[in-house]
User: Fold this.
Amino acid sequence: MKEKWYKDGLNFSCQGCGGCCCGPGGYVWVTEEEIQAMADRLKEPVKKFMRKYVRLVNGRMALIDNAAGDCIFLNEKGQCKVYEQRPVQCKTFPWWPEIVASRSNWEDNGYDCPGIGHGELIPLEVIERGLKDKS
Ligand code: SF4
Ligand code: SF4
Assistant:
Protein backbone atom coordinates (compact mmCIF):
# COMPACT_ATOMS: atom_id res chain seq x y z
CA MET A 1 0.00 0.00 0.00
CA LYS A 2 1.21 3.51 -0.82
CA GLU A 3 2.69 5.36 2.11
CA LYS A 4 0.54 8.21 3.39
CA TRP A 5 2.13 11.64 3.11
CA TYR A 6 1.04 12.30 6.71
CA LYS A 7 2.44 9.03 8.09
CA ASP A 8 4.47 10.88 10.73
CA GLY A 9 1.39 12.72 11.96
CA LEU A 10 0.12 16.26 11.48
CA ASN A 11 0.17 19.27 13.73
CA PHE A 12 -3.26 20.44 14.74
CA SER A 13 -4.67 22.22 17.73
CA CYS A 14 -8.07 23.89 17.59
CA GLN A 15 -7.82 27.55 18.51
CA GLY A 16 -11.55 27.80 19.20
CA CYS A 17 -12.07 30.55 16.65
CA GLY A 18 -15.38 29.07 15.46
CA GLY A 19 -14.31 29.62 11.86
CA CYS A 20 -15.32 26.15 10.69
CA CYS A 21 -18.88 26.81 11.95
CA CYS A 22 -19.23 30.16 10.14
CA GLY A 23 -20.01 31.52 6.77
CA PRO A 24 -22.56 30.81 4.10
CA GLY A 25 -22.34 28.02 1.57
CA GLY A 26 -21.44 25.11 3.83
CA TYR A 27 -23.58 22.25 5.03
CA VAL A 28 -23.53 20.42 8.33
CA TRP A 29 -24.98 17.06 7.37
CA VAL A 30 -26.82 15.14 10.06
CA THR A 31 -28.19 11.65 10.54
CA GLU A 32 -31.30 10.60 12.44
CA GLU A 33 -29.13 9.39 15.32
CA GLU A 34 -27.31 12.71 15.51
CA ILE A 35 -30.61 14.60 15.45
CA GLN A 36 -31.89 12.46 18.31
CA ALA A 37 -28.72 13.10 20.35
CA MET A 38 -28.84 16.88 19.77
CA ALA A 39 -32.59 17.02 20.50
CA ASP A 40 -32.00 15.14 23.78
CA ARG A 41 -29.22 17.53 24.68
CA LEU A 42 -31.50 20.53 24.12
CA LYS A 43 -34.41 18.70 25.78
CA GLU A 44 -36.57 19.18 22.70
CA PRO A 45 -38.86 16.60 21.09
CA VAL A 46 -37.30 15.35 17.84
CA LYS A 47 -40.18 16.63 15.69
CA LYS A 48 -39.83 20.11 17.13
CA PHE A 49 -36.05 19.98 16.74
CA MET A 50 -36.49 19.00 13.08
CA ARG A 51 -38.87 21.88 12.43
CA LYS A 52 -36.57 24.40 14.11
CA TYR A 53 -33.10 23.31 13.06
CA VAL A 54 -33.10 20.89 10.13
CA ARG A 55 -33.50 21.43 6.39
CA LEU A 56 -33.50 19.09 3.43
CA VAL A 57 -30.82 19.62 0.77
CA ASN A 58 -31.07 17.36 -2.25
CA GLY A 59 -32.76 14.74 -0.10
CA ARG A 60 -30.17 14.93 2.69
CA MET A 61 -30.69 16.43 6.14
CA ALA A 62 -28.54 19.36 7.21
CA LEU A 63 -28.60 21.89 10.04
CA ILE A 64 -29.98 25.29 9.14
CA ASP A 65 -27.89 28.47 9.21
CA ASN A 66 -28.62 31.66 11.09
CA ALA A 67 -29.19 34.96 9.27
CA ALA A 68 -25.43 35.50 8.95
CA GLY A 69 -24.95 32.12 7.31
CA ASP A 70 -23.34 30.58 10.40
CA CYS A 71 -24.38 27.26 11.86
CA ILE A 72 -27.55 27.71 13.91
CA PHE A 73 -25.78 26.24 16.96
CA LEU A 74 -22.88 28.67 17.06
CA ASN A 75 -23.48 31.02 19.99
CA GLU A 76 -22.43 34.65 20.37
CA LYS A 77 -19.22 33.55 22.13
CA GLY A 78 -18.23 31.41 19.16
CA GLN A 79 -19.04 28.18 21.03
CA CYS A 80 -21.15 25.25 19.92
CA LYS A 81 -24.45 24.88 21.80
CA VAL A 82 -24.50 21.14 21.19
CA TYR A 83 -20.75 20.55 21.50
CA GLU A 84 -20.88 17.16 23.25
CA GLN A 85 -23.42 15.91 20.72
CA ARG A 86 -22.12 17.74 17.65
CA PRO A 87 -22.38 15.77 14.42
CA VAL A 88 -19.59 13.44 13.27
CA GLN A 89 -18.77 15.89 10.49
CA CYS A 90 -17.83 18.45 13.17
CA LYS A 91 -16.12 15.96 15.49
CA THR A 92 -13.85 14.66 12.76
CA PHE A 93 -12.72 18.02 11.35
CA PRO A 94 -10.04 18.43 9.97
CA TRP A 95 -9.61 14.70 9.35
CA TRP A 96 -11.66 14.78 6.16
CA PRO A 97 -10.50 12.96 3.01
CA GLU A 98 -10.55 16.13 0.92
CA ILE A 99 -8.45 18.03 3.48
CA VAL A 100 -5.72 15.43 3.96
CA ALA A 101 -5.77 14.29 0.32
CA SER A 102 -2.47 16.08 -0.23
CA ARG A 103 -0.04 18.33 1.61
CA SER A 104 -1.17 21.27 -0.51
CA ASN A 105 -4.85 20.68 0.37
CA TRP A 106 -3.86 20.52 4.04
CA GLU A 107 -1.87 23.74 3.81
CA ASP A 108 -4.58 25.50 1.81
CA ASN A 109 -7.13 24.66 4.52
CA GLY A 110 -4.76 26.24 7.01
CA TYR A 111 -5.69 29.65 5.57
CA ASP A 112 -9.23 29.12 6.89
CA CYS A 113 -8.42 27.14 10.03
CA PRO A 114 -5.68 28.55 12.27
CA GLY A 115 -5.41 25.21 14.09
CA ILE A 116 -4.08 23.42 11.02
CA GLY A 117 -0.31 23.13 11.05
CA HIS A 118 -0.04 24.31 14.65
CA GLY A 119 0.16 22.79 18.11
CA GLU A 120 0.07 19.14 19.05
CA LEU A 121 1.43 16.46 16.73
CA ILE A 122 -1.56 14.22 16.01
CA PRO A 123 -0.48 10.64 15.26
CA LEU A 124 -1.43 8.70 12.16
CA GLU A 125 -3.81 6.40 14.09
CA VAL A 126 -5.92 9.35 15.25
CA ILE A 127 -6.02 10.85 11.75
CA GLU A 128 -7.07 7.52 10.26
CA ARG A 129 -9.74 7.01 12.90
CA GLY A 130 -11.18 10.45 12.05
CA LEU A 131 -11.16 9.61 8.35
CA LYS A 132 -12.93 6.30 9.04
CA ASP A 133 -15.56 7.92 11.27
CA LYS A 134 -16.20 10.65 8.69
CA SER A 135 -16.75 8.19 5.83
S1 SF4 B 1 -11.53 26.81 12.20
FE1 SF4 B 1 -9.98 25.45 13.09
S2 SF4 B 1 -9.20 26.54 14.88
FE2 SF4 B 1 -11.14 27.51 14.31
S3 SF4 B 1 -12.69 26.44 15.55
FE3 SF4 B 1 -12.58 25.37 13.58
S4 SF4 B 1 -11.11 23.70 13.96
FE4 SF4 B 1 -10.83 25.20 15.60
S1 SF4 C 1 -22.92 21.81 15.21
FE1 SF4 C 1 -21.52 22.94 16.53
S2 SF4 C 1 -19.46 22.31 15.87
FE2 SF4 C 1 -20.89 21.75 14.23
S3 SF4 C 1 -20.88 23.47 12.79
FE3 SF4 C 1 -22.57 23.81 14.26
S4 SF4 C 1 -21.70 25.09 15.88
FE4 SF4 C 1 -19.98 24.18 14.73
User: Anything to note?
Assistant: The two ends are 20 Å apart (CA to CA). The chain has a mean pLDDT of 94.
